[in-house]
Amino acid sequence: MTTGHLRDAEPRDLDQLLEIERAQFPEPWTRGMLLDEISQRDTRRYRVWDNAGEILGYAGVMFVLGDELHLNSIATKPGWEGAGIARLLMDDLVEDARRRGVARGTLEVAVSNERAQRLYRHYGFAPVGVRRGYYGASGEDALIMWAHFDDTVANDS
Ligand SMILES: CC(C)(COP(=O)(O)OP(=O)(O)OC[C@H]1O[C@@H](n2cnc3c(N)ncnc32)[C@H](O)[C@@H]1OP(=O)(O)O)[C@@H](O)C(=O)NCCC(=O)NCCS
Question: What is the pTM of this model?
Fold first, then answer.
């Protein structure tokens, strides 16, 4: 188990979040976009895994119409993949969503990103369709996935 703890993302984290964004995404968010996302606390929830001040991963959701969430972003710091950090973040986000009465969640993921898709399947997300050319830089298609939290249980399988 990785040491550290989960907490809300804060403006002081922006440098580290940007570093992870730039390393992990072909079209990384800018500092302004990240700040905007983490600041909208009424409709967003961004969490970081903080290991003695070093952010090893982060993830954020947007709440839509009260009972639905959209997974906006999830990424682990390069070199820390496979240590269970994304699972810790997803556990936290899905548990919180259930407490809020959020019934379902959706996300887009590159069709080639099997690692992320495998992670999402653990939380009941299943593919329902494709958005053609969703990723501007590569022109790659996105898989649209949905989960119904009321009839799925996060587990360690
Ligand atoms: C996808 C990502 C967030 C997974 O984060 P992670 O911290 O490595 O994931 P975890 O260690 O919690 O493992 C979660 C699951 O991911 C998969 N996974 C993790 N490491 C893997 C590896 N080296 N090879 C294949 N699958 C792997 C597995 O399904 C794993 O669950 P399991 O081992 O319990 O079956 C991370 O690889 C990442 O930041 N990728 C780049 C950004 C990205 O693609 N984000 C998603 C955009 S939609």
Answer: 0.92
Over its length of 157 residues, how does the chain's per-residue pLDDT go in tens digits?
Answer: 689 999 999 999 999 999 999 999 999 999 999 999 999 999 999 999 999 999 999 999 999 988 999 999 999 999 999 999 999 999 999 999 999 999 999 999 999 999 999 999 999 999 999 999 999 888 999 999 999 987 655 544 4
**Dist. CA 46 → ligand 1 center (Å):** 18
In a domain, 157, yes or no: no
- The answer to whether position 156 is within a domain reads no
Query: Phi/psi at 117 (nearest 5 deg)?
Result: -60, -40
E-strand stretches of 19-81? 44-51, 54-64, 68-76
Look up 120 and say whether it is catalytic.
Answer: yes
Instruction: Confirm whether 108 is a catalytic residue.
Output: yes
CA 73 to ligand 1 centroid distance, Å: 13
- Domain range for 25 is 5-151
> Ligand 1: which atom is nearest the Cα of residue 121?
29
Which atom from ligand 1 is nearest to the alpha carbon of 156? 34
Using an 8 Å Cβ cutoff, are 18 and 55 in contact? no
**Domain CATH number, residue 78:** 3.40.630.30
